[in-house]
Amino acid sequence: MDILFVASECAPFVKTGGLADVIGAVPKSLAVAGARVRVLIPSYPGLQDLASDGTTVARFDDLFGGQAEIKAASAEGLELLLLVAPHHFSRAGNIYLGADGQDWPDNHLRFAALSYAGAEIAKNGVDAWKPDVVNVHDWQAGLLPAYLAQSSKTAPPVVMTIHNISFQGLFDASQLKNLKLKREMFTTDRVEYYGRISFLKAGIALSDRITTVSPSYACELLTPEFGMGLHGLLQARRKDLSGILNGIDLDVWNPETDPHLAKTYSVRSLKRREANKREIETTFGLRRSDGPLFCVISRLTSQKGLDLLLDCLPGLVAERANLALLGSGTSELEQKFLAASKQNPDQIGVIIGYDEPVSHLLQGGSDALLIPSRFEPCGLTQLYGLRYGTLPVVARTGGLADTVIDANEAAIAANCATGFQFAPINATMLGQAIARACAAYRQPGMWSGMMRRAMRHPVGWNASSAAYLRIYAGLAAGRDQD
Length: 482
Ligand code: ADP
Ligand code: GLC
Known about the structure:
Layout: E1 2-6, H1 18-32, E2 36-42, H2 48-53, E3 55-60, E4 68-75, E5 78-84, H3 86-89, H4 107-124, E6 133-137, H5 144-149, E7 158-162, E8 170-172, E9 192-193, E10 196-198, H6 199-206, E11 209-212, H7 215-220, H8 224-227, H9 231-236, E12 241-243, H10 273-284, E13 293-300, H11 306-318, E14 322-329, H12 331-343, E15 348-352, H13 356-365, E16 368-371, H14 381-388, E17 391-395, H15 398-403, H16 409-413, E18 420-422, H17 427-441, H18 444-456, H19 462-481
Parallel strand pairs: 1-2, 1-6, 2-5, 6-7, 7-11, 11-12, 13-14, 13-16, 14-15, 16-17, 17-18
Antiparallel strand pairs: 3-4, 4-5, 8-10, 9-10
Helix pairs in contact: 10-13, 11-12, 11-17, 14-18
This protein binds adenosine-5'-diphosphate (ADP) and alpha-D-glucopyranose.
Alpha-D-glucopyranose binds at residues 17-19, 22, 163-164, 213, 246, 376-380, 399.
C-alpha cells in the first residue's frame, strides 16, 4: 500500500500544534504495518538544508507565481517530499502568520500551491512511485481533491482528515481564477461556501472518505454547535465519516528516555519524578508546596478555554496548589496570566512562548494537567499526560472525553480512573474539578494508583493506524473493481 500524505506541518521539522505531531507519527506506525507513506510538506526555512541535500523529483515552471520543485529526502524515519517554492515558503517567523500577527495575505496561494503539487503527484506520480491513496490533512490541503475533480486524468482515491473544523480556509470568490479553479467548481456541492471559497469544504465535499481525530468529535461535527457551518454537509456525508482516535509517538514521548527531563523514570520509579518537579519550580520561579503542581501547555486561544482557568485561580491558590503555565496566543490571555503570576509569583508561574523542551519537562514533573477546552477534536497533551503520569483534568468534549476516565465513585471503586472530567464547560465546574483533583492528591495511595494506571493506558498508534489502513485498503480495493 502506497500512501501520499499532504499537510502543512510535520514534527519534528515544523510544528505549531498537534497536527504536526500526528503527521510526524502516523507514517512510522503505518510503515510497521507494511505501508509506505510519503509526506508532502512545504519546504519552510528550517527545512532548507534537508531540501538542498534531497533529489529533485518534479519541477513546476510557474506554481502560483514562481518556479518550484519537489525534493525527496529522508529524515527522522520519515520519507519527505519537500515543496520548494521560495516565493511562498522562504519566510522567517510563523508559517501561517506575518510579523503583524495576521494571516499572510497570500495564504490562499501558498496552500493552493501545496494542494496543486499534491494533486500532480497523485495523478502522475514521482520517481516511478504512484500512491494508491492520498490522505489530505486540514484546510491547507483541502483543494487537492478539487484539482483532481476538474482534471480528466485518473487519480487515486482521497481521504480528508479534519483535525480542527474551526480553521476552514475561507477566501474571496474573486480568487477563483488565481487559484486555478474552473468556473464549474464554484457550486454549493464543491468549493462554494456562502459566496466564498472554502478550502476545507472542498476537501470534505470532494474526497472519497472523511476522517476526524476522535469518535466523539465525529459525532459532535454533525451538530450546529460543533460543525461550525459545515454540519449539514457532514450530515449528508455521514456514512463516509469516521472518527479515529489520535495516538502519540511512543519513542519521542517516553519518560524512560526523554532527554528533556532532569531525571527519567518509569512506572516503577515514580519517586524520580521529584527531581523534575524541582526543576519546574526553579524554571517557573515557584515555591515548593505540599499541594499538587498543575500545569498548562497550550495555545492561548478561546478554543482552549483558559479564560475559565483565570476565574479559578483564587480557588487553586487557596488549595495551596501551584500552577506552571507554558503557552502563547492572544495578547489578552497572555497579559492576564502574566498579571496573575505577578500577583502571586510563589504559586503561579507563567512562561509565554513556545518551548518544546519545557513542554516535556512539565509533563515529566507536574502532578496534573489542565485542559478546559470548549471543543477539542482530539487533544494530544492529555495523551502525553497519561503516558507521563501527569493526571489530566479535562473538559468533557471531543477526544478529551474519549481518552480520560473520570475519577468518579464507580471508576474509583473499579480501579479504572485516570484523570478528572468536568461538564458543563464553565468556570464553576472547572473549579470543582480542580478541587476534586486536590482532594485526590491528598490521598497519596489513590493518587499514585491513578498515576500508574494512566501510564499503562494504551496511547500508541497501533489500533488507530490499523483503522486508517482499513479505510485505505477499502478505497484501493473499490478502485480496483471499477
Ligand atoms: P492543538 O493542536 O489544538 O494545539 P493538541 O493538544 O493536539 O492541541 O497539540 C498541541 C501540541 O503542541 C502538543 O504537542 C503540545 O505539547 C504542543 N504545545 C502547545 N503549546 C505549546 C508551547 N507553548 N510550547 C511547547 N509546546 C506546545
Ligand atoms: C488540532 C486539534 C487537536 C488535535 C490535533 C491533531 O490541532 O485542535 O485537538 O489533537 O489537531 O489531530
